[in-house]
Write a structure and sequence with these properties.
Number of strands: 4
Radius of gyration: 19 Å
Order of helices and strands: EEEHHHHE
Helix content: 25-40%
Oligomer: single chain
Distance between the termini: 21 Å
Strand content: 5-15%
Structural class: alpha+beta
Number of helices: 4
Strand order of the largest sheet: 1-2
Largest sheet: 2 strands, antiparallel
Length: 106
């Protein structure tokens, strides 16, 4: 709890805001800019359309993470290396604190 105006306590919690593309994270198209080059650099599938199709299947929950990496012929153990290639846009700060009275959790 943090003190509000006139000493009133405000209920607050931290939220994680996720980016669709190109706002919080620098890549506007993470598949084309990050995933395809990563897969190719690991001697995986070369065809961008095939990589994108497998990514879509994984995004929809049809493929597990392990199944996705196997489909694009990359060792699933390299997933963290790929994820580490994502970068925040310049000026992106840390967590955002929003008073609970602003959000409806119902």
């Amino acid at each position: 709890m943090k003190a509000g105006m006139a000493g009133q306590a405000l209920n607050q919690f931290d939220v994680l805001v996720l980016d669709a593309m190109g706002v919080l994270y620098a890549a506007r198209d993470d598949v084309a800019e990050l995933l395809v080059p990563f897969v190719r650099s690991k001697a995986g599938v070369v065809d961008a359309a095939s990589i994108r199709a497998a990514y879509m299947q994984a995004s929809l929950g049809v493929l597990t993470s392990r199944e996705f990496w196997t489909a694009v012929q990359v060792d699933p153990a390299l997933e963290d290396e790929y994820l580490a290639s994502h970068r925040l846009s310049p000026g992106t700060g840390g967590p955002i604190t929003i008073p609970t009275d602003v959000l409806s959790l119902e």
